[in-house]
Amino acid sequence: MGGDFSQGVEAKMGRKAVAVFGSTGSIGTQALEVIRQEKDRLKAEVLVAYSSVEALLAQAKEFRPRYVGVLNEEAAAKIAREVADYSELVVGGEVFSLVDAADIVLNAVVGFAGLEVTVRAIEADKPLALANKESLIAAGELVNEKLAESKSHILPVDSEHSAIFQCLEGRDWDRESTMLILTASGGPFFRSKKAELDVAGLKEALAHPTWSMGPKITVDSSTLVNKGLEVIEAHFLFAVPMDRIKVVIHPQSIVHSMVEFKDGSTIAQISRPDMRLAISRALLFPERASSPFGSMNWPTDQTLEFFQPDTENFPALDIAIEAGKAEGGAPCWFNAANEVAVAHFLQGEFQWRTIADILSLSMEHYGSSKPSSIEEIYDLDRESRRVTEWLIQKIQQR
Ligand SMILES: NC(=O)c1ccc[n+]([C@@H]2O[C@H](COP(=O)([O-])OP(=O)(O)OC[C@H]3O[C@@H](n4cnc5c(N)ncnc54)[C@H](OP(=O)(O)O)[C@@H]3O)[C@@H](O)[C@H]2O)c1
After folding, report:
1. How much is the pLDDT for 327?
2. CA of 203 to the centre of ligand 1 (A)
3. How many Å lie between the centroid of ligand 1 and the Cα of residue 186?
């Protein structure tokens, strides 16, 4: 339900009013850098975080959004008085109604918790700049059904999907293309020997060579789960069959992804790794940012290497792709199992290789299902988390 937040949308003044869900995270703060640079075209109308209220208050002081949202009610109480000088404070589940106050919604929440933002933005007919891949992995078929009945559309923020979006702009995938090629940096362990991987832990997994990101996606990148999730994301975003999406390791992170066309031509999107480029492409579409993010310095940045993924040392990539191919509830189950395994890994409870072991075991406990509503997606997510927690307990008792 929620209040009526649809009044006073900024578009009237020629600026797009942006609702940033997850404004205190890695994507959220970079989105605010884009908004700062593009202040004649973008306005931070809504800023929402879970509990990082000090950071949120500092953002409110600078950007003066109409609304500030805090999911965690206890945390919200800490800033209630001060934030009132700049913005209206909205607390708890009511924050999701703030999609109504924007011209475009940026979903930069981490994990399955972002599903509510995705669904509410689509139901409110708002363009959705989507960084939160987990909502599409968990509920891709249902999200696409909702999109078909809505005036909303998705603008990808993940750099690989932004790249494909740019390569395909104005082109018809069905008629012209044969293959999507998603690039992966390979993460911190790309050049590691098997013996090093056997003893790798949290510190090593968090040392990403090319991207600075939040902790969950950094771990996902180290296991190549992130790339598996992105294959599923591309499948749902671009309506491309899973077997027409290929992964290649590209350690320089300069080619962000490619589309191969029927005549043998391949179009790639190239830039230095800088998420502000993909964020600005989504927020400003169809226009582009007025000054560059991540531009190349030709011919200095000219080393481009490509490798086959090592699925023996990184088995989680195939586990994710198999879940995507199984369709129905399998990607949702996989996503939840991964979130649970990564949360325990981030607490330092086991070594890096155990993540893939847990994923493999958890998928063995997935039966088959075809969720037909968002409520059934929530039920399946809960069940996967319950089973995966139980498996982790068993592993830890050994
Ligand atoms: N970082 C990147 O470069 C990158 C690149 C491509 C795609 N992505 C995707 O973008 C999303 C965000 O990633 P990130 O790296 O920016 O994550 P992050 O740095 O961990 O930030 C997560 C944000 O989500 C908020 N949040 C956490 N739990 C929440 C909950 N239960 N409900 C609502 N909000 C919650 C956090 O608020 P608090 O600060 O209050 O906890 C924070 O603002 C992920 O889906 C990721 O896969 C990220």
Report:
1. 93
2. 20
3. 21
Q: How far apart are the C-alpha atoms of 41 and 15, rounded to whole Å?
A: 4
Task: Give nearest CA residue, ligand 1 atom 13.
Answer: 110
Q: Which CATH code, of 3.30.1780.10, 1.10.10.350, 2.60.120.10, 1.10.1740.10, is assigned to 320-398?
A: 1.10.1740.10
Residue 369 structure tokens: 């299902």
48 contacts 41 by C-beta, under 8 angstroms? no
How confident is the model over 82-98, as pLDDT tens digits?
999 999 999 999 999 99
Identify the CATH class of 10-156.
Answer: alpha beta
pTM of the predicted model over 0.90: yes
Query: How long a stretch of residues is the chain?
Result: 398
Ligand 1 atom showing the smallest separation from residue 134 Cα? 45
pLDDT reported for residue 46: 98
Are 127 and 102 contacting, i.e. CB atoms less than 8 angstroms apart?
no
Domain boundaries, the chain: 10-156, 320-398
Residue 14: pLDDT band (50, 70, 90) is: confident
Task: Give 149 Cα–ligand 1 centroid separation in angstroms.
Answer: 28
196 CA distance to ligand 1 middle (Å): 29
